[in-house]
Amino acid sequence: MTKKNRIYLYVALLIGGGVLFNELRKISIADLLQELTELKFSWLLVAIGCMLLHWSIEGKIIQGLLKRQQGDFSFKNAVRIPLIEHLFNAITPFSSGGQPAQLLALVKSGVDPGVSGSVCLMKFVVYQVMIVLNFVACIIFGFRLISHELAELSYFVMLGFLINVVVVVSLLMLMYCYPMTNAIVKFVMGIIKKFVRGPRGEALELSVFEKMTNFYEESQYMRREKSVMRRTFALTFAQLVCYYVVPYFILLSLGVSQVDVLQIVIFHAFIILIISLFPVPGGTGGAEYSFTLLFGSFIAVTSKLVVAIVLWRIVTHYIGILLGMLALFVEPDLPKAKIALVKKSAPELM
After folding, report:
1. Which residues contact 75 (CB under 8 A, 6 or more apart)?
2. How far is CA 111 from CA 68, 116, 189, 338, in A?
3. Which of 72, 228, 275, 283 is the most exposed place for a label (fewest CB within 10 A)?
């Protein structure tokens, strides 16, 4: 474990623990014990099962994308990748560490670096497109639920949505309008180089155009593999549904039964979008605040709301951190000789 990543982990856990402790201070110990005593653990297990299924589906997505180049890639190897990605997303600002970590985890699992980059790229593109499509549906069916009473939060939702739209449009332009996109980026880089001069500016420009070229070349493969992409889109949709429905089962475990599952899914989708805007690792603080505003409207009992927040963060966030840490220490299924070669050629994740 590198010193830098250890610091990230400790800071993330410290901030997260502080926020959860602050939430628990809002209720008495007696109320907390009563809620825990009355908790329906069967529904809580269903919520945990949804998150495990969420990561398992992502593992199947990775297996599917690797089938052509590495058909013998095991599910054990594949399911490690999303768990490691979750860990590094959770401990780095703006979830910036997840993509590099999953790329390195694939390389350390014996996948060629070029193929690893292609898989990560395809998964990222599909995920971003599905996020935007899901949010369009949620805004159509659910924006009216928050636009009047929670105007401030609705602005966060729209900002997050616009950022994701810009990302998707940029990716699609690179895929389908490469010459025009290349000209636009050249113009923008010309402006940037007026401020970032010398070797740094040249290195930045070279890096940007190299990544653009790699993305364009890989995107052409994506366009040809229509059946693989259809399967990936379908599995990604199922993966997101498993994630979005978790609060519904947490509320059922607390005895809050008079809720609409579609409304819960829409609210949770909004919260996930808002979390991505907060620079704090894991969106800590913003996540709990958003949950309180959205779900507090129909959870009248303060103790239930606080326990719901704590359980939701444990199930969707902290279980993933724990499993991600365990995944780091699980050796991939590779011949011993290849394991030794991979360890020599790839740096440590943590």
Report:
1. 59, 60, 63
2. 12, 6, 33, 11
3. 72
Of 264, 272, 326, the C-alpha closest to 47 is 264
CA–centroid distance for 220 within its chain: 25
Residues 170-191 have a mean pLDDT of: 86
pTM score of the predicted model? 0.87
Cβ neighbors of 40 (< 8 A, separation 6 or more) are 252, 253, 254, 255
DSSP state of 74: -
Measuring CA to CA, how many Å separate 21 from each of 12, 15, 26? Answer: 14, 10, 9
Contact 248, 263 (CB under 8 A): no
List the structure tokens of 224. Answer: 């040809």
Q: Any long-range contacts for 218-227 (C-beta under 8 Å, 24+ apart)?
A: 218/117, 218/118, 218/121, 218/122, 219/121, 219/125, 219/171, 219/174, 219/175, 220/175, 221/118, 222/122, 222/125, 222/175, 223/175, 225/68
DSSP letters, 107-138, are: HHTT--HHHHHHHHHHHHHHHHHHHHHHHHHH
- Which of 172, 146, 148 minimizes the C-alpha distance to 274? 146
Q: What pLDDT was estimated at residue 339?
A: 54
- What pLDDT does 242 receive? 96
Size of the chain, expressed as the number of residues it contains: 350
